[in-house]
Design a protein that fits this description.
54% of the residues lie in helices and 9% in strands. It has 6 helices and 2 strands, in the order ββαααααα. It has a two-stranded antiparallel sheet with strand order 1-2. 14% of the residues are buried.
Length: 93
């Protein structure tokens, strides 16, 4: 069963940040197109990150995530990947 990872993200035309599910933002077609992985969970496993819960993900140093993103995706940083995926997700809503 996939781990549910969420994050708060400021969506356009929204006063407060909204809770978003990373499995929806980083869906299979996004991951296949922009990364070497089929799912966000496989992406995390590929970085050799031990993520068993939300707190594990939040404790992950952004510099480590940036390094993994740079090596295994078409993005230069975790923030760039997150922003792009979220923008794509919003357009589909």
């Amino acid at each position: 069963m996939p781990i549910k990872i969420t994050g708060y993200y400021k969506l356009p035309n929204s006063l407060e940040p909204q809770l978003v599910d990373f499995n929806e933002i980083f869906h299979t077609s996004f991951m296949r197109k922009f990364t070497r992985y089929k799912s966000f969970e496989k992406f995390l496993n590929g970085g050799k990150f031990t993520i068993k819960c939300q707190q594990d993900f939040e404790a992950l140093p952004e510099s480590e995530m940036d390094k993994h993103v740079l090596q295994s995706t078409k993005f230069k940083s975790w923030q760039e990947m997150l922003d792009y995926a979220t923008d794509k997700y919003i357009l589909k809503q």
